[in-house]
Amino acid sequence: MTNVSARPTQTWALRGVLSWVKPQQQNVYQSGLLMSVIRTLSASESNEQRDREKARLEREYHKSDQRLDHLITNHDQSLKDVMQIFGEVSGRLADARKRIRTIKENLAACKRLLHCKRDELKERWLEGVEHKHVMLLLEQIDEVRDVGERVGSYVNKKHYLHATQLLVTSLNRLGTDLKMVEALKDVNLDLHARKEKLHEVLIDELHKHLYQRWTKEVLALRRQGSGRDSTNTLTRAGSDRASLGTGKADKARKNLLEMITTPVKGLAEGESLEEDVGGVDPEANTQHFMAILVECLALLGKLPDAVETIKRRMQKELGVIIQRTTQQIVEYHPPAPPDDPPPSVLAYLKADSREAKLLQELLQVVFEQFRLIVAAHQSVLVSMRASSDKHGIELHLYSMPDVWSKVQAALQVMLSEYLDLSQLGTTQQQAPAAFTETATDLSSFFTKKRTPRIKNYSLFKFEASYHAMTMNSYLMEQAAGQAGVDLFDFSIADGNNSSTTGGGNNKGKNMNDKTLVCPASPHNITAIFNPLQTFIREIEDALACSPGTHCTLHVFITDYIKDAFLAQLHVETAGRLEQATKALDQWRTCRDPTLLKTMKVNRPLLQSSISVWQSIEELRWLLGALPLYADHFVSMMCNTLMNYRETCQAAYRGITQPDSEDKRIISATWAKDEDISRFLRDLPNWRVLQAGVSSECTIGGDENPEEVGERNRKEAEILTGNLGDQLIPQHEILADPAQLRTLGHLQESLEWFGSCIVKFATSLPVKSTSSGIMVSGEVPPVSDASVQTLTSLAKDFEELAHTCLLVLHLEVRLHCFFYLLPVARGGGFASGLDSQEPDNDVLKLIKDLATIDEALTNTLHPRKCKYIFEGLGPLIANILMTSVVHIRRINENGIKKMCRNIFSIQQQLTNITMTRELALDQARQYYEMLYHNPDEILNGIMNRGKQFAELEYINALQLLHRSSPGLSQESLHTSLQRLSEILGDIGVTV
């Protein structure tokens, strides 16, 4: 028991050591076991139970003791090492305490010695301070003496921040520490002069990077891009970053791209600008370089003056950019050879003209430069705000709306020059704006001259007096005043190279002597409107204009188009329409094969139709050039077509309606008759004609000759029934072939013209109520009412063309009536002489048909000529066969003469239609039947059948009875009775 009780102290000590080496899990286990035993002993009630627990505890204790001994045996060497290290540390600590005690004693001794020598030491310290100050002043003097050269060296290398900091520091020293040094007076004056010169250099460099360095680089990049589209060339050129090399052109491209794409950021709080003097081009990063220039101006205290200078010179610099760009483009594109014809009045309506391309290139290059200038100004403003806040300078800065305002003013001056606003008032006063008046006297070529109606013209007009003239003059004078003598004195800097255009000789030039890439004309607006609208949207987005409000450039363009361009376009279009319709040479036909091939026609057209269609095409091109005014141009088209419709109707009336009211043209009257017109248009040959298919193919495929003959016979009967039995006066037909030729030209021209208008109207996109008008180079949508109006006008032209064709169709048939009806009434068929010549009226008809055929063959399409002449055989046969009732007497010589008449007409028709007229063969057989007596004719009907109508047989029997005076009336009655019986029997048999 004594051994057990004597070890508690050692056990607990060893247990404390083991707590550092035993695993944490074993500690937790033993602690839990010990607590369990303690709780069991506390809760036990009997001694036996307590003894058992004590025995258990002793066993566990023995196990722990054994493990402890084992661990001590294993870690004996480590314990020895620890004790050794502990001894060394204790020794070092003791030595340190001794040294500290010695230092304290030495310090106390020094303190006593210093206290005894303090006056002498203070005197020596003051002498040292004074010596150091003198040495510092000498060093500053040496540095100040070399400041001028160092500043000049920095300026030559364009390290302006170092130069400015050195100069400002030196001037501060000369004004404070070295103020009383008389020997530095000249140095002080020199540095002040350098300060003023440096201020001017900084301003010039800032303006150079704001305005001057872009022109040459932007032009070079646009030429590399070949001007394929109107998008931003800089963005397109910078899309391929892999192509950026180390050359000067690649650096310029990268620099310009970064100016547009890199967002402008100011300096963070506590951040300072750094300038690299290690040989890198200081102008490589334009934004950083301009920030350095602004910082230099702030250090010099010239930042407020710089702001005022920038605001004062902004308008001038923008104008110089435009002139410099113009000069560059003119030098790159030499003028056209003098042999080339000058452009016409409306040549600028052509998008591919040289003048339009040059003006578009100028505008795009100017826009790109202005975008760069605006970005540069934005960067400069950010730098100015940062520098003013950093140095505590109070500034009245300009804003970005001020920059955009100057840009718009410069563009307005430029546009005023190219749009020729100076001639606006004169042009509008010279020509009356009578575009919408109805042209009622436009057929002077066809009708008798009439006294023109006197029109009242206004003496004065003020449509463009304020904005387009006064405002333009004001802007031009302002630009000229600001530019002064330096307007044409500029340079383009590129590294160390520079090129100048103009010089002292140009100082006396005024605004009218400026170089232009193309002649001034109001029609230039058509080439630049869409690029202008794109740039105007950029301006309005930058200015954050509210809906319904626009920038001044938009107002300027809108007012110009309304007050100037559209007014002049009305006058020019009306003048061209009047020239095309009133002038005699304009009503002649155009036979130029190149022009007709361009129009996709193979027949001559009226020059007036071609001229009016060219005007319509120009207005159609304006739909894409000025898409915001699409409805207005469509309205102009409608007005032009209405006027030309009146012209064509007047021309038609001039031919078909003579001045005398008691006279009429039968063909025109029949063509206007609804029943006759509807009957003719319901015939298959008209439907085939309108379908554009040859009538020969239709007859050969779907119709047989009997059907064609029946149709033509029905047409002949309708026309004969409308005409009656009267002779036609000569003034009721169109006897002049020139008039028929003119009708043919009018028909071909109006049919082509109407089809062109229909195609154009159907190609126009219709604008819905909610879509609005698209601004695009393509044709924008227009209102549905405008499209319907165009379609209706086109149908009017086509209807007039159809009427002309019906008149020609009827007129040829009326000529047959006119010449053939008097033949039977002449009474020359019972002569005793056997004449070999046809009747005179027949010869006239043959000649007339040949003349009409010659006039219409070169005028109308072959299928139209076929429509006109087809069916003449049945008609002539009907006329000749029904004319039997008007023949008083006939003999064999008369029958021969009539057969010769029929053969001559048949031969002429065959030459015209290239087909044998079977109806004329029947007519000749009808007259050859008169060689027989009535009995032979009746027997022939019984033997061969019925060849003619009953009325035709009756007329033949009556003529034979009149030709034989010895026959009684009873014999005629008997013959007619027998004819009726024979025809009745034939009908029953059939």
Automatic annotation (TrEMBL):
Cellular component annotations (GO), alphabetically ordered: exocyst; growth cone membrane; synapse
Pfam families, sorted: Sec8_C, Sec8_N
Keyword Zinc annotated: no
Biased composition regions of type Polar residues, renumbered to the chain: 227-236
Keywords: Coiled coil, Exocytosis, Protein transport, Transport
Highest taxon, organism lineage: Eukaryota
Ranges for region Disordered: 225-246
Entry-linked InterPro entries: Sec8/EXOC4, Sec8_exocyst_N, Sec8_M
Residue ranges occupied by any Exocyst complex component Sec8 N-terminal domain in the UniProt entry: 62-151
Chain segments annotated as coiled-coil in the UniProt record: 47-113
Gene Ontology BP, a term: Golgi to plasma membrane transport
Domain Exocyst complex component Sec8 middle helical bundle: 282-531
Family stated for the protein in its record: Belongs to the SEC8 family.
Function comment: Component of the exocyst complex involved in the docking of exocytic vesicles with fusion sites on the plasma membrane.
PANTHER family registered for this protein in UniProt: EXOCYST COMPLEX COMPONENT 4 (PTHR14146:SF0)
Protein name stated in the entry: Exocyst complex component Sec8
Organism, as annotated: Homarus americanus (American lobster)
